[in-house]
Amino acid sequence: MRHTRNRKTGLRTISIKVPQETSARLVRLARERKSTVSAVVRDAIERYDAPLKGSFADVAGDLIGCISWGPGDLATNPKHLRGYGK
């Protein structure tokens, strides 16, 4: 990867190759956000590399109980657990 550093900002400039479709998506996202392609890429990297906050239940809490079909005792009734993990 080729990169240079901007002395004023301390930011490094990197050069990457992306498919034309990805480039078009980056430009579209930058326009929608009234931002730059660089800012969109930096934000995406931060979000991708950010640790999840809280437990799985905290992160997916809005999904708990969202299924209205199926047995209500799926995780506790031994008859539903037969063969699990084999």
Q: List low-confidence stretches.
A: none
The number of distinct helices, counting runs of at least 4 residues, comes to 4
Question: What is the string of SSEs from the N terminus onward?
Answer: EEHHHH
SS elements, strand count: 2
Shape: elongated
Which structural class do you get from the secondary structure elements? mainly alpha
Amount of helix: 40-55%
Strand content: 5-15%
- Terminal CA distance reads 45 Å
Rg from alpha-carbon coordinates: 23 Å
> Mean pLDDT, as a whole number?
86
Describe the structure.
A hairpin with a 6-residue loop joins β1 and β2. It is built from 4 helices and 2 strands; from the N terminus they run ββαααα. With 86 residues, it is mainly alpha-helical. α1 crosses α2. The N and C termini lie far apart (45 Å). It has a two-stranded antiparallel sheet.
Topology:
Blueprint: E1 3-5, E2 12-14, H1 20-33, H2 37-49, H3 56-59, H4 78-81
Brief descriptors of the model:
86 residues, mainly alpha, two-stranded antiparallel sheet, 41% helix, elongated
